[in-house]
Amino acid sequence: MEKKNIIVKLKKSGLVGRSGSCFPTGLKWEMVKKAKADKKYIVCNASEGEPKNEKDKFILEKYPAEVVGGIKIALETIDNSFAYIYLRKDYYQKFKKKLEKLSNGFPIEFVKKIGGYLSGEETVLCNVIEGKKPEPKIKPPFPVESGIFGYPTLVCNVETFYSVSKIAKGEYKNTRFYTIAGDVKNPGVFEFFEKISVNQILKNTGNYPGFDFFAQVGGGASGEILLPRELNQSVKGAGVIIIFDSKKTDNWALMKQWADFFLAANCDKCVPCREGIYRISKMIEEKKIDKKLFEDILFVMRETSFCSLGKCVVIPFESRSSIPFESSFILTPSNTDSDVESFKLALWLPLATVSVLLSIVVFMALYFASLAADMFRFLPLFISKSCPLLCSVFFSDSQVIVSASRLNVLHLTAILSCF
Description:
Blueprint: H1 6-13, H2 25-34, E1 40-46, H3 55-62, H4 64-77, E2 81-87, H5 89-103, E3 108-112, H6 122-129, E4 153-157, H7 158-169, E5 175-182, E6 188-193, H8 198-204, E7 213-218, E8 224-226, E9 240-245, H9 251-265, H10 271-286, H11 291-304, H12 308-319, H13 336-386, H14 388-394, H15 397-416
Parallel strand pairs: 1-2, 1-4, 2-3, 5-9
Antiparallel strand pairs: 5-6, 7-8, 7-9
Helix pairs in contact: 1-2, 4-5, 4-7, 9-10, 9-12, 10-11, 10-13, 11-12, 11-13, 13-14, 13-15
């Protein structure tokens, strides 16, 4: 296997992460390799938590040697590195022994995923590997800078490592894997060029419906909703395509599936995500959706959620307007103002509290800095009186007093600028 200049080859291939993030793989590897640290970590993410997504499972069944081969290349490329294969609970039971045999002789350990869908997020899995609570960390810093135990960490998807192995062998053809599910004749996982359209994939696999339908594309829950006329585009995200029969599909039941999935996945750490998903879920459960309030909640979640989960929730609900979901909405304008204000209060009250606390901390820091400046202002006078010879050699009283006075004015100006 040719491993020389692998980062150059990754960049030239245009390979991007296959977990849905689509971050350039070559750049990510280069960032970890160049990071200055005496220890680095590599993680193969096999958590695969979205509904209907089975491409990683398929690759681990059919091409485990290529996946481990990609991890070995990373270990040889990145100095002082150690690797983990992070497996979903059922994947851990099914694939661990096979992968252990293939990993023999290399510093690779296996970790069983703890928690649900969110535990596949890169900062969450770093916490799990460290033995901490499965919840996200703030970014930046990103794992490539500070990941597991604070060391630079390379996190890549199962399919990404498979593709790295193919690139090293010169066998990569710019393909990717797609999971097709739903109301189709031939469900399964298929490999096609990454730029191929949804339309072509369905036709080439014999899965293009002969009935009125719509598709969810990208993720099993977070994918966007597309009509047949919108299928002349490539697949984004994790490569999932789910077909729904328009006449047989209950729109309320489908939206409830999304809401239930994200409600179960939510870690309760941030207010926008926790409150937003709960309120969406209640509206769907009651089959009474105020469109204005609904859109306001989605906006807040997209713009202010702590991690990517809240942003993923927005995708299917915002794209639902392209199919006949609007007719299902029962608008309740009378409740709009109070609900919006209640949601805003739940969001901004903790933020305002944090802002006040930070202001107090900054004020106190500047206050003590000012006191320190006063102390140093009179210190030269004491030295000049007790050690006049030493003082005359290094500075004069007037110079020191003027300098200290200027410093004190600067501190006072900084404090006043806070108000």
